[in-house]
Amino acid sequence: MKHIIAFAGSSSKTSINKxxxxxxxxxxxNVKPEVLDLNDFVVPLFSVDxxxxxxxxxxxAHKFLNKLKQxxxxxxxxxxxxxxxxxxxxxxxxxxxxxxxxxxxxKPMLLMATSPGxxxxxxxxxxxxxxxxxxxxxxxxxxxxxxxxxxxxxxxxADQTLNNQLLTEIxxxxxxx
Length: 177
Prior knowledge:
alpha/beta, Rossmann fold, five-stranded parallel beta sheet, NADPH-dependent FMN reductase, FMN binding, FMN_Rdtase-like_dom
């Protein structure tokens, strides 16, 4: 059985991106989805000086990277803070990229974002689509959910057109498995 790692680039306990990534991961038949929470992988604020004084990287950075290594595919939904990654995700990303610059190991990835606004995290998606392939992300699908509070109701995407768009991207991920 294929193993999919899904996570939201957010540390919010009520993360709308975690709700979306959990929904997407559970749409895939015959796989074992594992939804990670960044709060389970807290690391200190990255600095080269701290890395030197620790003689390496924090254990939680290694644990998170090992989860990515074990996956057959990845589903990532990025929260957007001021048009960029959240501080929690960027910090963890900085640490894991010091362990191994490959980070995503050419695993098929569905890259997503959502926000309460009409752009649905488009700025952070553009940033990730540019940056992630430099760390061996094999992005096989991209999905943006605008106006989360209007379009995601009762644990699912209520707008059928948007849901069909997500299902298309899920199928792209399944084909890449």
